[in-house]
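Dear H.,

Thanks for agreeing to be a second pair of eyes. The structure we're designing against is below in token form, covering all 306 positions.
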């Protein structure tokens, strides 16, 4: 009997489009996972994959422009900068929203119970609701409500969900870690005036564009004191803090429950919110998986021989 193959797709915000390249490389090699698990953006891509929507998702993300990404940012003053309703409603209207029972293969998503501080495995109900909970990055997206609980990003407790793959019956787990090379990447102090000027003239700099909008709103409310220079921007501090947390948690979790094959795309130059740079991420994911396939084949052969 062949080993059951599980694919664990990790969190990493915009870097998560690399998962598309990973899945494409697996398909080119004739490898089809028996089950898929995802955390955060990994849950979103994983849900599209098992739901038969990966082609449409890839076409859409490759067409993204910075203006499109900013249009999904429904700013909020409670629980997070972004409510996330616009993004989820877009997916519900443009991609088939299935129940977990209707998926072609087993799928699970990871979220965090904000009140109890525990890991939550989402495996039933509407898939889009599970994805919304799994991507609720603290401080950025508002928490999701589910069965009386407040759920936030699964990366707080399990950034690369190998353990969920094992629990769902995987004998051989391919895990994708998007954050291994990111520590300190975002902390680069810049003049505030230069940031606002570049945000207006350089549409590719999404983080600055978002910050310019936030700073404008704060100025109108009398909340922003600008003395001509500034420390790293709020999104930069948030991104680096999340990177540190997820890298350390990932190392701890994988030490106790290692994957059989680790895939680590090199994505340090891709920012937290740069969803419009999908082609770069997808290509990096494909390259990383192609490099890991010989190790996968060796591991599979050794399991078949035992």
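And this is the sequence the design step returned. I haven't edited it by hand at all.
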């Amino acid at each position: 009997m062949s080993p059951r193959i599980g694919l664990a797709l990790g969190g990493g915000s915009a870097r998560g489009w690399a998962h598309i390249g990973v899945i494409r490389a697996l398909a080119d090699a004739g490898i089809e996972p028996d089950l898929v698990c995802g955390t955060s953006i990994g849950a979103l891509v994983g849900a599209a994959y098992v739901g038969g929507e990966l082609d449409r998702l890839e076409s859409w993300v490759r067409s993204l422009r910075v203006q499109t990404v900013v249009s999904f940012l429904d700013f909020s003053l409670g629980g997070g900068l972004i409510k996330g309703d616009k993004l989820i409603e877009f997916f519900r209207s443009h991609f088939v929203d299935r129940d977990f029972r209707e998926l072609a293969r087993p799928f699970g998503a990871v979220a965090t119970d904000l009140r109890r501080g525990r890991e939550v495995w989402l495996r039933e109900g509407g898939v889009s609701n599970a994805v919304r909970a799994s991507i609720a990055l603290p401080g950025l997206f508002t928490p999701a409500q589910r069965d009386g609980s407040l759920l936030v990003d699964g990366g707080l407790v399990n950034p690369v969900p190998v353990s969920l793959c094992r629990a769902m019956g995987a004998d051989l787990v391919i895990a994708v870690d998007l954050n291994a090379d990111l520590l300190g990447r975002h902390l680069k102090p810049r003049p505030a005036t230069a940031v606002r000027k570049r945000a207006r003239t350089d549409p590719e700099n999404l983080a600055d564009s978002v910050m310019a909008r936030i700073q404008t709103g704060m100025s109108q409310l009398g909340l922003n004191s600008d003395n001509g220079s500034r420390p790293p921007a709020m999104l930069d501090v948030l991104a680096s803090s999340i990177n540190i947390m997820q890298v350390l948690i990932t190392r701890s979790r994988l030490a106790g429950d290692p994957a059989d094959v680790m895939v680590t795309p090199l994505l340090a130059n891709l920012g937290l919110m740069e969803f419009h740079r999908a082609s770069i991420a997808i290509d990096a994911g494909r390259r990383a998986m192609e490099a890991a396939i010989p190790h996968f084949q060796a591991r599979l052969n050794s399991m078949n021989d035992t």
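Two observations from my side: The mean pLDDT is 81. The CA atoms of residues 120 and 305 lie 36 Å apart.

Warmly,
E.
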